[in-house]
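Table S7 (text form). Paired inputs.
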Amino acid sequence: MPPRLPDPRSGLVLDTHELSRRAGEQVEVTRVAEAPADLGIDVIGVPPGSPVDLDLRLESVVEGVLVTGTAVVRLLGSCARCLEEVSDTQEVDIQELFCYPGKELDDAEARHVEGDLIDLEPVLRDAVVLDLPFMPLCRPDCAGLCPECGANLNADPEHDHADPVDPRWASLAGWTEPKNEPKNKE
């Protein structure tokens, strides 16, 4: 079964046809592509279909095509402390060697030029996901949620609860001091 060629209609697939196989030739590529699905982690990621700004240089080297440059993506997720929406942009560096057929390196994970096409989706996925914050915050001093009632402590910094009663003493809470009542004399 022949390998599946990348879809040339995808904005993340680059055609190297105009780049000759002579070492030292280079081509600049600037484009906006759509973000693929599942580009992120559970709490933050790139919305599918959102724009990915690519600014790349494709350079022909002896082994294949060296792709270097940057990608700018929009991030959307939830704050790890208060669960408010977090929106940001992220610029990631891309550098990957795509080997020509017959010029494979000893690296089992080396990427390849398929026909004249290069698929940047796996490279972009690796670069973006590895650079995502593990615990995204809406702001560095986010106070989070109240552990007792779930109130957002950023909206109400003075939020407080009465001191909790120790459950071992809770049954004594209804007791009061005996009142000095006069005794009946009969």
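Next pair, protein 2 of 2.
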Amino acid sequence: MAATGEIEMLGNRMEFDYAEGVTGYVLVFARIITGYWFLHAGVTKYLAAEPFNAGGWLVNGTAGAPGPVHAFLAWVGQTPWMLEFTNVMVPLGETLIGFALITGAAVRLAAAGGTFLMTFFYLGNADWGHGLVNGDLLGLALFLVVGALAAGRILGLDAYLEELEFVRRRPALRYLLG
């Protein structure tokens, strides 16, 4: 396990020791659980008896959402090419995001993708029948934590990928890893 990590927070570079206490293990646990959650969601959409179709949720299930969000999601659900794109990208995105988090490869990129999806899921379920704090918001928070704290550098492939000459020559790539 990597002993230290470096993050940038509010414009300041900070180094912290993952080995202190259980911090590193908690981050790995959060990364793997979040990855399994998304991998399972994506794969089960492929294995379902009926092809995945987000149309019903986009048009009807988001009716409690605030105006612009519902209007956009309903438009996606009623526009054939956007609906088809969504029907392909949601399960594919969930599967790839889940796989990346479980393996610890390109974790920040995967966390950004998960944050994007969870934002739409959260806002799309905006009738908030179970309150403002719900599973969608907690999933969004998990992606933010895993990405911000570079959880792929701990027992993940990102620690190895960052040592590759290709990545070393392109420091900007480190922002996708972690």
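The mean pLDDT is 87.
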